[in-house]
């Protein structure tokens, strides 16, 4: 249901619906509660290659939309519940992050087991078996990141299976299983060039499996390097560190970084993918649209941009969840909620066009006027964050004045709608989303898309991430040296083929040793991490990155700030402006609704000194006193009901 275009979608949707009713109805249940399946039913429906094909389609249903960066250190949107900051405050009775991967593994293992028993031509089902191995790795990795070591499940279980009541496997064993499954997948899957014919967009390829393998290898190499020595972080609830059981031949940190770099290079050099850069086409369609070209990569649908670009024009997504307005809408409140509104920290992490951070760049204009910090900046800031005083289309036919009417000017449409399309910051109510700044990533301006009906594809893995993996692995292999005289942890050639291509499409000068040499606080590893934070913001990587770098405790316990209401001892435009959209003389900013007030002194924003500190006068939206991330949060708690069902599951420490 998620991998076909409109030409083939209807028939394959029917077939997959029938399949779901026949053989995979049980996949939505917790595997711990499964009764043995009817062997006759399984025998009937795994006798032909097409049965394996349809079963493999069903596995893609595990892919969805990730909200993982919401309320992180880079986001000012705060949830309303006890896990407002993206991590647990107490062990949960139940947890979908445990339950759903295991229920999905049942369908995965059923496919793999039936493939092993298949008496026909094994080559005819090899690709579908490869899809099974890929998703077995995918689901185990979801649990590894959250819990550390977990019980490995590689077969269909019944109530008497030893895995149901067995202990957790060590972190090492889980990683080894993931990597083994990915190698099995890579041996069997088709290359992107063989499947990307327009009717199979979204199907997992050799390149997608290699990109995912690179992600896993980098994650685990850096976890082992930076996190394994942190006090009492257990991988299996028994031994310190990653757990005591390490499979024979388990890769070293150097091995994992080397393999991550190579897997990423294989994807980068395949010739099948390219960074999205449609500045010329969009600028030709209308002045100013070119600067927002990165925004349009994330909202591609029919009629979603002035240049008429479609999903087929995007060659950056290596692996994606495919949505369709008729058959599979996203069905999340994306545009209305504006999930990924940036914090002060993220705003200052964006570079100036000269490639330097705001605290060092001569091009930075400061904060006195509302638009100053948008001048001479990274196009990811310009395109993905609303600029005060600038006009932006709404979405759908009714929301915020209605969506884009590219054949008309804003002024012409305003005469029809009587709506002022000019954006002004929301600083009158601290309970709403989008306070202070307004994030535009994954926010549509399509006239025909009301909220919940957006249908652009979601990037599970894209080329920019693969390039970032390569650069980070290369720098770590070079020692990850800080700004030490004569140290070159990553070659300029490696920077130019990765980081600097990403910076070029963002309108930012290249990263070079000469550029950062005058600034002792700047390091190559720190700047690569900065690029990762900026580029992948809103795509569900931030919490995992902070954890694997061993800095989550430091980064996630600082105050979250917004706009500078005062700067260098005097009021900024935010504090002095009368709100242009009200006739009652109210000011743009109402201090009475923000109980945390403003920062009173300068403070470090990050453990990386290369990120600009917060100065006095910034609005505090979330005070450090309530940001309660603990060391125990590096591994989330096993849900209570699972331990009750299986006492052999020893809880993670600190819970």
Automatic annotation (TrEMBL):
Residues 1-26 form the signal peptide. It is found in: Cell outer membrane. Its main location: membrane. Pfam families: SusD-like_3 (PF14322), SusD_RagB (PF07980). The keyword Phosphoprotein does not apply. InterPro entries: SusD-like_N, SusD_RagB_dom, TPR-like_helical_dom_sf. The keyword Zinc does not apply. Residues 94-218 form the SusD-like N-terminal domain. Keywords: Cell outer membrane, Membrane, Signal. GO terms for cellular component: cell outer membrane. Belongs to the SusD family. This is SusD family protein.
